Amino acid sequence: MIPVCALQDLPAGEAVRIEAEVPIAVFNVDGTLYAIDDTCTHQDASLADGWLDGCAVECPLHAACFDLRTGMPSGPPAKKPVRTHEVVVVDGQIYVNVNAPQRMGV
Description:
By secondary structure, the chain is mainly β. It has strands at about 1-5, 15-20, 25-30, 30-35, 50-55, 55-60, 65, 85-90, 95, 105. Helices cover about 0% and strands about 40% of the residues.
């Protein structure tokens, strides 16, 4: 598992980027945590720098939107989903479980 930060350090409506084999973005949507690959599949942009709207994140570069629950894009310009990852909270610390099977477009 990759440590992210303390739960209290990721307020609702915010995101954090963590370095891993592939960068991962972790989002807090009203207390529910989601993790996806951080790079937009349309063009190389950080989704952690995007805008949250419910369970969707909008890429800051060309406005592609991805569902944080499934990784699926809602429409062009992105056509490919991003991978989603399991998020675990242990003793007030957020972790991304990179050993869990990764989901793409579930």
